[in-house]
């Protein structure tokens, strides 16, 4: 079949090539664009919700009220559960009183009567074992445990509502944690006495600076030390293609010979692409080129209100298919290794399934980094996914044409409030110290917007309805399925991922009909992927599964797969090398004769869009 791109955006430079529509792209564009609204009454409803959303950080009060009503009504009609909670309250009160009396009268009293959860680092210092702070924090943990019992295990509640109520109770309790208060945190009190209160003065200065930066739209303190093109995203290359949605970067070779199959990387569009090209020592792009691969990277446009009607099909056609066309034209190669990270990996999976549906065998391999294809266990993000919440979110996006960066950041901070909100407040405002800025944190502050239509389609089709995993996801007028993919897959999950939990990533094994090599690496969603050789305290597990082998559950897989110290990156390049041909001379940067001339130096122009 013909493998050429769709028409370029008319605003592209005159040097950009013009091509006839690709068959897949034509199918992708067959779905008509929705009207922003059809009646004045609908516009009135949407406008009101958009106004409310500004004061609720995009969270639907109706969805929250529904969850609390479900909890309260079922608890009110469960006298047995109420008696159980009364009994637990009495036991915990007695337990705390006995512990307090023992601490006051016995020299070698036990350190605790309840241990915090493994991930709870708030009370680890030795000062929390001293009177009265030991009793204060133990009382808080017992209260926290009681509220967990009070919001879970109530017969009749929907699971989603139970998760929401438990999460909300945990968030409210965290506000009143003794670690967050000057008077009940011994570490803060000791530092204040030691420094004569100067830590609080510095903390106030830090707070004023942060508030000023937030209100004026500036980046966090220290981010100015990291600049794209200077010490971030510095791997040499050229932008060789541009349309209204992407710039395609081709990186310069660093070896005399390269593998014949190029690598096309599709990053997530929720953030800038250069998480995979940070500094010189932790750039995955630089590592791949040093291992003898020709690397291309998609750099996404930062959408504005006028891009509101860009949908998932546009991201497939303009983002993946046109980039694939360009890579093949420039390198004159039939086969391509495709790599997708996070949302980019999900998009790449859909594109690969679409290509397979059309009988297009261009993809030599598929590498998916922290990317989900089944969303039934998509982590705590599922708390914000139901019809009520999505309708509220859609009305907010309808009003402005996109999902704003601050609205996304607030959601992710809530999911890890102890790590991202309260620990920061304690360290920077009460301790009076500054959290050192690093390249990964600077990248994290460089967020992008998401178009109204695309984000709505993504959340409804994938998170809410799980259409891709269940065979209902349409590209054009026909469904696609992951089971059609025949290219071997290198699948990576991270142990502490709160965005794409590794159990959810692992579900690709249930959907696929191809050979899968699964890697489980230490770290979280970002730090686990940016895990360069030499990074301390890193390990990973790796095992391959043939397409006709019996299925192994994730927990059993982990139990029987021994950890390996170090970075997983060499394992990826070893795997890619085995799937590649013998090294040959590197291709030129761009191909003017094929209609893909170099347009500018990497990192391009889209990465600087605000």
Question: What are the main properties of this structure?
Answer:
two-stranded antiparallel ribbon, alpha/beta, 15 strands, 11-stranded mixed sheet, globular, 20 helices, 11% strand, Rossmann fold, 2 domains, 610 residues, disordered N terminus
Describe the protein:
- By secondary structure, the chain is α/β, with parallel strands linked by helices.
- The protein has two domains: 61-182, no CATH class; 237-404 and 449-608, Alpha/Beta hydrolase fold, catalytic domain (Rossmann fold).
- Helix content is 42%, strand content 11%.
- The chain is built from 20 helices and 15 strands.
- The chain has helices at 23-28, 40-56, 61-76, 79-105, 133-151, 159-175, 186-195, 198-215, 284-290, 312-331, 343-357, 387-400, 405-415, 417-430, 439-444, 452-464, 502-506, 508-511, 554-560, 569-578, and strands spanning 237-242, 246-251, 263-266, 295-300, 336-341, 363-369, 402-403, 450-451, 474-475, 478-479, 489-494, 516-521, 539-545, 564-565, 600-601.
- The strands form three sheets. It has an eleven-stranded mixed β-sheet, sandwiched between helices. Strands 7-8 form a two-stranded antiparallel ribbon.
- Strand 3, helix 9 (284-290) and strand 4 (295-300) form a beta-alpha-beta unit.
- The longest helix has 27 residues, at 79-105.
- It is globular.
- The model is unreliable at 1-21 and 26-36 (pLDDT under 50).
């Amino acid at each position: 079949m013909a493998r050429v791109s769709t028409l370029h955006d008319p605003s592209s430079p005159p040097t950009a090539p013009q091509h006839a529509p690709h068959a897949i792209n034509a199918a992708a564009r067959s779905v008509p664009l929705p009207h922003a609204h059809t009646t004045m009454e609908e516009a009135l409803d949407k406008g009101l919700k958009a106004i409310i959303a500004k004061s609720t950080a995009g969270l639907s009060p109706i969805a929250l009220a529904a969850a609390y009503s479900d909890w309260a009504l079922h608890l009110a009609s469960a006298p047995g559960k109420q008696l159980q909670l009364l009994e637990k309250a009495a036991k915990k009160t007695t337990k705390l009183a006995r512990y307090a009396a023992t601490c006051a009268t016995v020299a070698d009293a036990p350190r605790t009567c309840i241990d915090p959860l493994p991930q709870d680092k708030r009370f680890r210092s030795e000062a929390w074992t001293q009177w009265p702070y030991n009793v204060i924090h133990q009382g808080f943990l017992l209260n926290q445990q009681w509220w967990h019992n009070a919001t879970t295990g109530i017969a009749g509640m929907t699971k989603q509502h139970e998760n929401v109520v438990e999460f909300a109770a945990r968030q409210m309790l965290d506000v009143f944690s003794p670690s967050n208060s000057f008077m009940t945190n011994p570490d803060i009190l000791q530092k204040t006495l030691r420094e004569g209160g100067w830590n609080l003065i510095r903390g106030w200065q830090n707070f004023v600076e942060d508030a000023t930066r937030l209100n004026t739209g500036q980046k966090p303190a220290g981010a100015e030390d990291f600049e794209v093109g200077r010490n971030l995203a510095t791997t040499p290359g050229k932008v060789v293609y541009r349309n209204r949605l992407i710039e395609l970067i081709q990186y310069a070779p660093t070896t005399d010979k390269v593998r014949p199959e190029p690598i096309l990387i599709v990053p997530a569009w929720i953030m800038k692409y250069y998480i995979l090209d940070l500094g010189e020592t932790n750039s995955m792009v630089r590592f791949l080129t040093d291992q003898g691969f020709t690397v291309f990277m998609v750099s996404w446009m930062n959408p504005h209100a006028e891009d509101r009607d860009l949908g998932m099909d546009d991201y497939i056609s303009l983002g993946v298919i046109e980039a694939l066309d360009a890579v093949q034209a420039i390198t004159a190669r039939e086969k391509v290794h495709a790599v997708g990270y996070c949302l980019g990996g999900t998009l790449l999976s859909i594109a690969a399934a679409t290509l397979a549906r059309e009988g297009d065998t261009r993809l030599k391999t598929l590498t998916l980094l922290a990317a989900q294809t089944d969303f039934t266990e998509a982590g705590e993000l599922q708390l914000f996914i139901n019809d009520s919440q999505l309708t509220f979110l859609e009305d907010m996006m309808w009003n402005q044409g996109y999902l704003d960066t601050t609205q996304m950041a607030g959601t992710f901070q809530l999911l890890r409030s102890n790590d991202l909100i309260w620990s920061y407040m304690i360290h920077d405002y009460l301790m009076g110290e500054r959290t050192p800025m690093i390249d990964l944190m600077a990248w994290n502050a460089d967020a992008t917007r998401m178009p109204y239509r695309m984000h709505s389609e993504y959340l409804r089709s994938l998170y809410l309805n799980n259409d891709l995993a269940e065979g209902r996801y349409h590209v054009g007028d026909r469904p696609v399925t992951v089971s059609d993919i025949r290219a071997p897959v290198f699948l990576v999950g991270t142990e502490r991922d709160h965005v794409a939990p590794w159990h959810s990533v692992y579900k690709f094994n249930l959907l696929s009909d191809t050979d899968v090599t699964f890697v489980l690496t230490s770290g979280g969603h970002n730090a686990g992927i940016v895990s360069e050789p030499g990074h301390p305290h890193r390990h990973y597990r790796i095992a391959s599964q043939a397409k006709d082998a019996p299925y192994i559950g994730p927990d059993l897989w982990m139990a029987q797969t021994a950890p390996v110290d170090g970075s997983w990156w060499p394992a990826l390049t070893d795997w890619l090398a085995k799937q590649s041909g013998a090294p040959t001379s590197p291709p030129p940067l761009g191909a003017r004769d094929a209609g893909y001339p170099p347009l500018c130096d990497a990192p391009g122009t889209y990465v600087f869009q605000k």
